[in-house]
Amino acid sequence: MILGLDVGGTQTDAVLLEGGKVVRTTKTPTGDDLLETLGTAIEKTLESVDPPAITRMSFSTTLATNAIVQDRLEDTGMIVTAGPGMRPEWWEVGPSYHVVRGCLDHQGFEALSLDRQAVSQAASSISGLGISTVGVVGKFSVRNPVHELQIAGMTKDRFSHIALGHRVSGLLNFPRRINTTYLNAALYRTHRGFVDALNQTLDAACLRAPRYLLKPDGGTIELNRSCDNPAHAAQSGPAASVIGALALEKCSGTTVILDVGGTTTDMAVVVEGMPFLETLGIRLGPYRTLIRSLLTHSVGIGGDSEVRHGQNGDLRIGPLRIGRPCAFGGPRPTPTDAMICLGLLNAGDKGLSFKAMESLGAPLGLGVKEVSGLVLEKMADMIALSAGAFIHELNSRPVYTIHEVLHRESIEPSSCVVIGGPALQVAPYLQKAFGIPCRVPAHFEAANAIGAAVARVTAEVTLQADTHRGTAIIPELGMEKKIDGRFNVESAVSMAMEALRSFACEGNGEESNEVSVSERHVFHMIRGYSRTGQNIRVKMCVTPGIIREWRRL
Amino acid sequence: MIKAKRNTGLVFFPAYDWAISPTHPEREERLLYTQDQVMEEGLLDVDGIVEYKVRPASYEDIRRVHFCVPDEEAVTTQSHLIAAGGCLVAADAVLKGEVESAFALVRPPGHHAMRVVHGNRGFCNINIEAVMIEYLRERYGVNRVAVVDTDCHHGDGTQDIYWHDPETLFISIHQDGRTLYPGSGFPDESGGPNAQGATVNIPLPPRTGEEGFLFTLNELVMPLLERFKPDMVINSAGQDNHFNDPITNMNFSAGGYATLNAILKPDIAVLEGGYAVESALPYVNVGIIMAMAGIDTSNVKEPNYDMDYRPQPPDTTRYIEKLVKELQGLFLEDKLKRTAYRAGEIIERRRDIFYDTDMISERQHENIRICGECAGAFSIDSSSSRRRRIFAVHIPRKACSACSAVGRAWFDSAARSGSFDHLFLQDRSAGTYERI
Questions:
Q1: B24 flagged as catalytic
Q2: A290-317 pLDDT, tens per residue?
Q3: Beta-bridge partners for A516
Q4: Whole-prediction pTM value?
Q5: Residue A280 Cα, gap to closest chain B Cα (Å)
Q6: pLDDT for A248-266, tens place per residue?
Q7: Which range marks the domain in which residue A468 is found?
Q8: Which residues pair with B252 in a beta bridge?
Q9: Range of the domain at B19
């Protein structure tokens, strides 16, 4: 059996799956203590289950997100090398940020050696503040980590934890590398503490199956390994829902996944089962990062959104949620009240809903049923409009080759999958607004926890080889190898494949057939008019998807 | 977070799947390292810098500018259409008011492509700036345009296309033609009989450095623009004046290009040449983007600047000061000798044009009608070493009725003569384009 948990802002969903079927779903209010919430939810979900029967456990938590939003990051020093371009002082982050001299060019050649004295001074000034965690980041360190490694070597005795920039991602973006490294360092101790405590809780309950955390890219990472890059497990909630929808409903063609919640509706676009990813990475609070993430879009309309009159006598829905629906004693009418009045939902105090919708309809000369219908139509229209803008943005993404300009087809959704609390009630309205079939899968209300449970391990590697310089490097894994002139793109692909397999394998090796090469470029390096070498770039990833155990059934 | 002082559009199209030939300077990775640098700097995350997706230009966009022999399809590839289309995207972004200025970082370049196109000249097939300018005029009613070409090579194609247009001021700053391809671009090339003084060539000597370029810009180019009062300023932003460039002899720098751009403040910049793909382009392009967005560029510098940048020699400085003074006299103090022509008179011009990339020789015989009311109709009788002879008529925007009539009459009589493989009519005034 597989256990999946998704900790949300107000509610924690859990599922127990067996043989491709949902055995049990539970809901637990999310408390202030994350571990306690998890403990309660696990206990509730596993009641009368024999612990050894659990074969996989996977969690989507709000730990990192909350630490960032509530500004509970550990004081962290930063040592940065940059060189020419945008001024590195512009990317200052944390209480003790130091730029030291040293420069690598875009191919990783050292243009200016590291100022070791400045490194020592920076380290002294950081530890002088009583700070024991640092992030070390160099511009173009993914092309050559030499300066980061030198700094780490020089300062490792002074700090208890050092996070290195080249390990966060193979992508080029210095300011985001700084932010991501900072977060990895500043979240480290909190995350480590959580992982240790969770391990203890699970051990105590005799739950010894492999443990995973969900990441925002819709994949999982082994729990202990997540400590290497703690920020990479932040904000996985939207991904949980998307993967859940994929697990519950066959998404062929182009599908819009709509997760209708209380305050917002989150959406994602999936083409032939593959969700779109953010170009660079997720934004966590004020920090733009290089953390791979599914591309999701959120609009401030949900079942509990406030409905009010606009200035032109029309209805306005959201983006605020003032409180609970009137049926539950809330102050303002909501779409949920409209559903109750139309007999679509049997919940709360119907009388209160009727009263609220009556006073909403009266100024417009509309009865309760009419105005309730109007509210839901309007809600669906606004969601469809927002989805249209989202899809337009996807279609406007730049492309860099002639082939893509001429052959990349534009995205046109052929159906929607609707999940979340009010999915059943709003789906018919959404179908009308979108003009395409809108399906609601079974277990739509627990899709997020199911997504967390069945998401497979993902990883990506970026290999850059320069046969002129004689090196091949995979920064994410801290791998750097000498190569000779015979090294070619095929050697690069197999080197990256091997590295990816050893990292992302879930034990039975099944993930390997899901590896996709997302970039494969060979450029001839030419001096004057003759070739001096090849610049080879290969990017490979295990794409987000569902573990085989669930898919088989 | 850094915010742009001026919202800036960026159209980036490196054409990673196109080259003239495998070892030609105009090849796949020309913008690879530029993209690396732009991405690593995080420029696309800057609030106010917006990246746009390219689209291909249409043959109709090209017909407003060129006479393509035998037709557009034969002399362009998809890559040329997309590079030109990238400029149109930049133009749309600015004219729709989405951004204040835009930079089309596209390839292949275009400023050596002339009005008649038999093939590729100086790595160029179609003139992407001119295609954009005529689109701006057609679509948005832009009238007066100034092109400031800062490529190291004389922008002979753009000069040719606007030779007869008094409403396009073409200024080219380049390495002296006696020392570099295409060997033209001297001060006495100052515009056709109906557009005298609307072409300004500034041939700078080899080894011109930052101070020489900026001196020329401040003392000559900026006053020329002030005087011309263009609706829009376009910068043909070639980057081969750079001290690291392998095929030129100038001493400009990334910081210098950035300063130039900050002073010039072009509405749209278009990448032209520049072949130091690893050691100059990444820094120059970052500098230009930052300058356009109004971001401090004082830290933009090549890693080898301190070691390899050569300050401008004093004799070069003296030469430039003298040259600028002469040009100020000609173009700012009206000392340019203007020939007085009689309205209705037909002026002839004969010349030979060489297409270095495609090894084609072209012979042209041009007739233009002198006109006081419009830019004047002209015809071109062109034959190439590929044994094709064409006859082409251009009727300008806002043509007077006499010029329209004369142009059409030329076309009709040439059609009757039967001596041409193809006939072209480019009636910008009526918006009709014919090819027989």
A1: no
A2: 999 999 999 999 999 999 998 888 899 9
A3: A541
A4: 0.92
A5: 10
A6: 998 889 999 999 998 899 9
A7: 459-551
A8: B242
A9: 3-331
